[in-house]
Amino acid sequence: MLRNIPSAVLKELVKLSERKESHLAQMQSIDRQISRIEQRFGIPLREDGSAIVTTSRPQPRGSSGRRAKRGVLKEKIVSALQQAGKNGVTVGKLSAKLRVPSANLYVWFNGTGKNVRGLRKIGVAKYRLG
Q1: CA-to-CA distance for 81 and 72, rounded, in angstroms?
Q2: 3-state DSSP of 30-82
Q3: Same domain, yes or no: 51 and 4
Q4: 3 and 47 housed in the same domain
């Protein structure tokens, strides 16, 4: 597989990889500095108590990977839309309120949301019931 790649290209890949690792190390250093400043001034950390630290490979999913029961997200979204009334609510605000990634909500509205009676799109990423 690697026999067909010229050595110049491999050298370029190595250089790029080294640059990437260097930038990641700088980002982690900056994240640690931000965390120290937040602690010094009493700014609360994230809910899990850690600062944001980026890595080059995804972290394994631990035992906290519990799935919600079927229909829970739908109930939460419909309830939030009912509370919003005729003005509706944007996906961003809904994401923050429900603590669900906005990408999940976009997918939900595009799929499951089409089967919810009374759900209307009233603007860019803005929905309401009724």
Answers
A1: 14
A2: HHHHHHHHHHHCCCCCCCCCCCCCCCCCCCCCCCCCCCCCCCHHHHHHHHHHH
A3: yes
A4: yes
- Same domain, yes or no: 78 and 50: no
Whether the full predicted model's pTM is greater than 0.85, yes or no, is: no
> At 9, is the secondary structure helix, strand, or coil?
helix
The residue whose two tokens read 């005729």 is 86
11, amino acid identity: K
One domain for residues 2 and 51:
yes
Q: Write out the two tokens for 104.
A: 């999940």
User: Is the pLDDT reported for residue 1 higher than 60?
Assistant: no
What is the count of structural domains for the chain? Answer: 2
At residue 52, φ and ψ (nearest 5 deg) are -75, 120
Lowest mean pLDDT among 67-71, 77-81, 97-101, 109-113: 67-71
Structural domain of 18: 1-57
Tokens matching residue 25: 């190390």
Which tokens hold the place of 112? 């499951």
